[in-house]
Each structure stands twice: as structure tokens, then as C-alpha cells.
Amino acid sequence: MLEQLLANLEIAPLMGIPLNEKNTMRMDFSPSNRKLLEVDLSNTALFDSYVFGLLNSSQKQYGIGGYFEHRAIYQRSKVFATAVEDFRDIHLGVDIWTKAGHPVYTPIDGVVHSFQDNVGFGNYGPTIILKHKLGGKLLYSLYGHLQRADLENLVVGRLFKKGDLLCHLGEFPENGDWPAHLHFQLMWDMMGNVGDFPGVCSHREQEKYRQICPNPHAIIGY
């Protein structure tokens, strides 16, 4: 459905330039990546060194991945802790890893639905959510792990046109204490949330959230 609604729209690159195999590498944070066992993920500086070591060694500017990926990195934070059988480790968006301060642009016209600083180790940090009208449907896009300065003077209802500068990637710890990256997620339904939305779910809830959160690669284009 999303692809059909986007078919006649020109989409601006999220990071200002198109992502492709020349500038972007796929990143794996699933349990199948045994290298993660060698990294102290609770130490953000070490986690950061791991992420940017991969980018530097591959000579890529961006790392990308994560849509409905079973993640092995959420043990680092109590933000995701629920009952063992419902531990939230299925990632609902796409992460784009690159240097702090990198600008992020509005891919399609939208207005500010809500925003807030979701503080706490492992949380989103500064977050912006836009609302888009696509035909007769509403689509919401979430941008997490930003700079706090991006929330200053922002107001609900503000219009951002396609290609407008929206925000910048924050650095740790203000970005929720993660290596610098953008969490980009799409939602058909905000489920009553304001300034926040689950970025991960439990295995039990996968199908529910798969209906709510369409694949962001339809907008990212890679």
C-alpha cells in the first residue's frame, strides 16, 4: 500500500544524498553477528568504536539496517525490559549510522505531530514525529536520537516541505546514549502516543506492529 501511495511523489533523500552501495554498508545487530559478543555494549564509547570502526574499515559514510531485525543489542538497557517472554528486541524502524551532527531532511511534505526529549539510557533522546497526508490516508514518521537544539522553537503544526532541513543527529549521551545514528520509523497509527512511539516490540507482538509500521525503505530508497 505504501509504495502505491508514494508512486507519484518525488522523495527527498533523508541524509541529503541518496544512499547506495558505494556510500552505505548493511549492518547486522542480530544474534547471528557473533562479533557483538566481544563488545561491551553497556559502554557507549566502546559500542561507538565498534560501529565507526566498521564504517571506517569499509570506507563507507553510512551504515543501514534493522527493519524487523531481531536485535542482540537491547540487553544494554532496562528501557526494553519486560517479562522474559515479552522482552522487546524486534526493531520496528531503520537505523542509519553516521557521524553526529549530520543533517536530516524531510523526505515528503509533513507537519509536526509532536516532539519531546525521551531521556534515559537506551531511549530515543530528542525525537520529532511528523504527520503526512498521502491520498486519503495519514502516515507518521519518527526521527529519533537527535540533537536537543533541534527541539528548540519547534511547534506542533509547523509545516516542513520536502527537502527542508529537519534536524541533526545527536551525539551520546544526549541522543539516548547511543553511537550516533538516526532511528527512522513509519506508523499508520500513533495509538495515542505523543512525542514517542515504541521502536521495538516483543516477538509476541510482531504481527500487530508489522501492520502498523510499514517498511521505511520505501522512503529511504535503499
TrEMBL record:
SUPFAM superfamilies: Duplicated hybrid motif. InterPro entries: Cell_wall_metabolism_enzyme, Dup_hybrid_motif, M23ase_b-sheet_dom. Residues 90-188 form the M23ase beta-sheet core domain. Pfam families: Peptidase_M23. This is Peptidoglycan DD-metalloendopeptidase family protein. It comes from Belliella kenyensis.
